[in-house]
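This protein record is not my work; I was only asked to verify it. Take the sequence as given and treat only the tokens as open to question. I have pasted the whole thing underneath without changing anything:
***
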Amino acid sequence: MKKIIFLLALSIFSVDAYSQNKRKFGQVTKNELEMQFYDKDSSANAVILFDYGRFDGQDFKFKRHLVIKILTKEGTSWGNWTLRTPNKSSFRAKVFNLDNGEVVSEKVGKTSIFEEELVDGITQYKLFIPNVKVGSVIDLEYSFVGLPYEWRFQDLIPVAYSELKIEKNQYIVFSRRHFGFHSIQSVGTDHWIAKDVPGFGKEPFLNHYSNYLTKIEFELQSIAVPGVYYKDYNTTWQQVSKVLTQHSRFGDAIKGCPFLKEKAKEIVAAELDEKEKIARAYAYIQDNMSWDKNKNIFVSLEFRENFLKKHVGNTAEINLALVSLLKKVGLQAWPVVLSTRENGLVMPFQVSLDKLNYVVAAVYQDEQLVLLDATSKRLAPGILPERCLNGQGWLVDNHDGRWVDLVGNNLSKQQSFIQISVDENSEWVAQLGRTFSQYEYLRWAEIHEEFDTEEKFVRNLVDTYPNLQVEEYEVAKDSKSSLYSSEKMKLNLNDYIDDLGDELILNPFILNELNTNPFKSENRRYPVDLGKPMDLSSTITIKLPENYQVKSLPESANISMPEKSAVFLYSCTAVGKDIRIQFRLRINKTVFHEGEYLTLRQFYSIIVDKMSESIQMTKDV
């Protein structure tokens, strides 16, 4: 593509791309600097005052001019930008402030702009604009050769004015897709304007907001200059497999890795079965490498040094090394590329290499495909971190590339067993046992790593549930290999029970995390994405004191959403002095579309109401 751009630049007269721009770079007014809030959204922490983009059909250049007003301290984060472009870009930026009523500007130097070539043809820039504070106005302009990947008419902050013009060129063929709910005005062929676009309002259990913004995505299909140059960009995911397997920092990294040969020989010599080979290879990579928090599908140029000396690397360096080692021990293994939840969805019908930002490993075990990610010390074969649970990933293979489900059969499972009684000192106590499996185990482990001692964990528990007194606490089991843990604790409930003299009121759901409905809005525009299935259950036994009897019990409930996508079971019975409560919540699918929202909201309302119901006990007269 760069060759054709060069030829066209020589043969075609170039015009000023900003001849139709309504605003010149550096034209920031004192009124804009004195502006304290955005009149159409007084809660906004920043506002995009002006956003203009134009693809010049004569010189193949795309230029963008962006002006942002900072309104609050939180809004200063809009001084930091990460931009991906299909070619190297040129930048200029200024930040404007008021100093004793005078307008002062500061040019953003090259030291504030960091460039990284992610892969041939895709460059990432990080801009850290200095001296951004409340009241600042940022003026940013950049350009590159080619079409933009997308144009956003909407963002997390309001957009006062946005305009995009894509001039046609007889040599270029491209397609576009429109997304979002906010209307935009078409003012000509491939020319759009949007005004007063509200900031995107995030909702709970929402996949990345960028999936739902009002925007246009572009895909270059072909460049054809008769007798000079032709290239077809109409690619397929199978062609993506070929590009990656031939890439020096992807396919060659898997084929190479000579530093893994000795470990491979050791594993082969041990004469292990498939499961044991996978476990041994996985543990070696996991123990040898720590993740540097960088997400990438390509290894760095320092891959060998990072593995052998620094023992730290990005996602590709860890998981492509794992694929390589699995292959070297004689297993069928492949890389699986994907987009993480915070990066947005990858659509099977839309081939887009630049949307991929993460790679994991896949291997056959007992004729079943198992996914692996060795970036965390807590993970185990067969389960991916929650950041990866984003639809499907593409298994890279030249002959049998295909889409694979990233969640698999894993779910978030927690079981509680509670025994409530009065002890020999006439104190109300609860013996509580909890088990955590799969994703609940990973969440449990993350919390315990944050509070690195049991004392700190208990202190946090007391802060969260101030009416409970933790008398004893013990981690009974913590098994990373089986993704399972269990804990036991003894709780004093005296401050938790309402004692009305002749009557006691007790809510039996101790450490209840379902005490409020997460779906508060009456309506919803976007799907609910829970990420993974869920299975929560509790068995509670209450032994009444000899001088008390049951006054009232909550009614039982058995509620299901259509097609049993979610099921809630609740029963409460009394036999003599014993009360037994059974509770189970099972969420069987991960995504509920907006049309299902009201049903899901009502479903959760019933759960919250049932779990807030108390048991009433009266004293014998």
Observations:
- Confidence is low (pLDDT under 50) at residues 1-20.
- Residues 221 and 233 are 4 Å apart (CA to CA).
